[in-house]
Amino acid sequence: MDQIHHFLHRHHLMLTGEEEVKDGVVCSGCHKGLPGPIYGCSDCKFYLHKSCADLPQEIQNFFHPCPLFLTIRSYSYKCNACFEDGSGFSYRCTRCDFDMHVKCAQRPTIKSEGEELIHHFTHWHPLTLVEQKKDIEVLCRICEKLCSGSSNYSAYGCEKCNFFLHNSCMINIPRQISHFFHPSCPLILLTYGRYRCRGCAEESSGLAFSCGKCDFQLDVKCALLPTVESKGANKIQHFAHQHPLALRENMEFGSEVWCRACGDNCLGPCFGCGRCFFFLHTSCASEIPQEIHYPFHPLHPLYLSPLLPDPAHPTFWCPACCGRHDRFLLVYRCAKSITTLNYFRGPEYRQSHFQG
Ligand SMILES: [Zn+2]
Ligand SMILES: [Zn+2]
Ligand SMILES: [Zn+2]
Ligand SMILES: [Zn+2]
Ligand SMILES: [Zn+2]
Ligand SMILES: [Zn+2]
Ligand SMILES: [Zn+2]
Ligand SMILES: [Zn+2]
Fold first, then answer.
1. Would you say which domain of life the source belongs to (predicted)?
2. How far is the CA of 214 from the centre of ligand 1 (A)?
3. CA of 267 relative to ligand 7 center, distance in Å
4. Which residue of 15, 124, 144, 162 sits 20 to 30 Å from the alpha carbon of 252, by its own alpha carbon?
């Protein structure tokens, strides 16, 4: 065929033999010149090597859960597999803002020789079985516990990157989660050179649960925090707040600390986010319902909103208190209408309005 229609260009492309290609013509995909026959649209100065034109439009790679589409990027990008710069061709997932060099996407996966050497989506390089007797002290990138030496659990690692994982952690880590820290989008496990965790606000590198569309990254530690039901945890995730809550020790925030659920002073044990000055009694944290049915709003349930009430927001008016709302307290919202409700002070008052 001398003329083709290609998904990367809107006009037909004509085949030109190697000997007829003009000097200075480079492939719009791989940015390299000759040799080889080339498909071209001379009006647009758009050219593709025959071999580049034959690349599949859509591929699946072990390192990314979504399909990747061959794209020509107009700006340089960083390959999310090898972390080197790229330009022109990229196998790309737009939703995750994930790019991969063609050569990285084409890298052959190693033939597994027994269970010693494996490919896993948490790391770009092959992982080798860690010898238990080896005298190295390394931490698992998922659970942050010791991977070697005294540990009885088998582990895999890439020594060059100092990246190690317990076999069990590797098997159990989900590739995609939904998390109320970022409720609007699914979060996908990806690898980053450097990022700031939106949970704990600390700098991190390596694995992150990520939403590319919103540029939102959560480190594994924050994403998999225990909930208030797990007894004895000193850091939890709670649906009432979009950051981790730490058990408050030794009154480091003073005594002027108030519970966002009941409004009372937090003198006893409480969970808190120091950045937002958000605190909950430990008892309130375990008792406050996530969902309520309000008799005067019978059509939909109301959900506890992890967003702090915005004092300037005109729709924030509590119909149950007839406007006596308290902007400091947590609110329940209806997802389908603008109804917003305070969580009331005093259990008797609460009882009379809600059926939990
Ligand atoms: Zn090319
Ligand atoms: Zn054209
Ligand atoms: Zn690459
Ligand atoms: Zn993706
Ligand atoms: Zn590595
Ligand atoms: Zn998002
Ligand atoms: Zn309280
Ligand atoms: Zn916070």
1. Eukaryota
2. 33
3. 10
4. 144
Q: How many domains does the chain have?
A: 6
Q: Is 110 a member of any domain?
A: no
Instruction: Calculate how far, in angstroms, residue 258's C-alpha sits from the geometric centre of ligand 7.
Output: 8
The DSSP line for 66-89 is EEEEEEEEEEEEE-TTT--EEEEE
**242 and 274 co-located in one domain:** yes
Question: Is 80 exceeded by the pLDDT of residue 103?
Answer: yes
- Rounded average pLDDT over 226-246: 91
**pLDDT (0 to 100) of residue 230:** 86
Beta bridge partners of 192: 206
Tell me the ligand closest to 211's alpha carbon: 6
Q: Look at residues 157, 172, 187 and tell me which one is the last residue of a structural domain.
A: 172
Residue range(s) defining the domain that contains residue 184: 176-223
Report the separation in Å between the CA atom of 204 and the middle of ligand 5, taken as the mean of its atom positions.
16
Q: Give the ligand at the shortest distance from the Cα of 240.
A: 8
- Residue 112 domain-assigned (yes or no): no
Residue 137: both structure tokens together: 């002290």
82, part of any domain = yes
Instruction: Tell me how far the alpha carbon of residue 345 lies from the centroid of ligand 7, in angstroms.
Output: 9
Ligand with smallest separation from the Cα of 275: 8
For the record, the structure tokens of 228 come out as: 């208030």
pLDDT per position as a tens digit, 249-304? 767 777 788 888 888 888 888 999 988 889 999 999 998 888 888 777 777 787 88
Q: How many whole angstroms separate alpha carbon 248 and alpha carbon 226?
A: 16
| Judgement on whether residues 283 and 321 belong to the same structural domain of the protein | no
**Mean of the per-residue pLDDT values of the chain:** 83
